[in-house]
Predict the 3D structure of the following.
Amino acid sequence: MVEKTKQFIKQFDINLWVLALGWFVGAMGFAVAIPFISIYFSREIGLSLIQIGLFFGGLAVIRSTFQLIGGEFSDRIQRRYLLVHTQIIRGIAFAGMAFSIFYNMGFWWVSIFLVINSIFGAVFRPAANAMVSDILPPDKRLDGYAITRSAGNLGWAVGPAIGGYMASYSYGFLFVIAAVITTISGIVFALFLKTSNSIQNKDKFTFRDLLSIKNDPNLLYHSALIFILYIVVAQLIATFSIYAVEIVGLTENQLGMIYTVNGLLVATLQIPITKMLQHKTFTFQLSVGAFIYAVGYSFIGLFSTFTFLMISIIIVTFGEMFMSPPSLALTSKMAPEGRMGRYMGIFGFFVASGWSFGPMYGGFILEHFADKPLTAWILISSLAVIAGVGYIAFAKKLPKELNYKE
């Protein structure tokens, strides 16, 4: 077992492991605080579910726009440069949020710093995803995305465990911790990430370039389906956290435990599951993942107890592990030479757009079906079924060479 692990580690460039380490640290900083910001807005500021959903919807619209812009930047500016500086600026923004909370500066100041954090987080993601493709050849990328995703979710496992404990004492201190950890992520990239020049596109950029999706029907179809699926995926943060704490009555510690189990499962099982599915088509993995999401989120409405909410999120987590790496690997297979950042940016735009509509959709449903949780969560989950059926249909249109790892 030890020997197999060593062989697995050695088959990948050291820069992939540095990227994974920085991603782990950055995700931990994010996860310490962000899952609890919705509860802060609800409990301390008094916003309603719909107001919180609208805020996070608007925030994700901003994030989706900057995913596109970040993708273009990452084809023109050194990706390593973007990774370093985006994380340091995010650390400063987290510090600003902490200051705003400590001095009771109100919703708007907290929101401004959260928007700044989200903008630079959006620029970070397509650059980091494109860097996986810089580091690895095409036949290794699915494994590479599984590794970086496992690292990110290990951070997601550790972060809420810290945050759930600290939230009962001080929301402001959560963001102090997030600021320090996120800045360390940028330092890791600055000191240890050594990659070759990734600038491949020196053409003059215009915003019309962002509409290039219309010239690739495969990317257009994939992006539309991933948007629908991510409306459901997005329920994990704002909608679920408020439902679990404010409606069901879980404590912040219990919520943190659920998020920690989610992260630990991905960190430990993502690579084995990706290996198990590596000979299946990307569309098969995406469709199965979508259907698992539908089952998991539907179960949330069946029983209002900590144990059953934990079981529901465990099911959701398996859906996450089935669909996330192949969604990125499929995007990388579609990207032409010199356009990896753009394609990752377009993909990220539709992912972030799903995140934008998700809290609004979920908040609206829960607000109007507060006394019928099963109906509410089935309505939320139905979109995952649509996405799953869509990927089954997409398999018939997608060229075979794009639909496999090799």
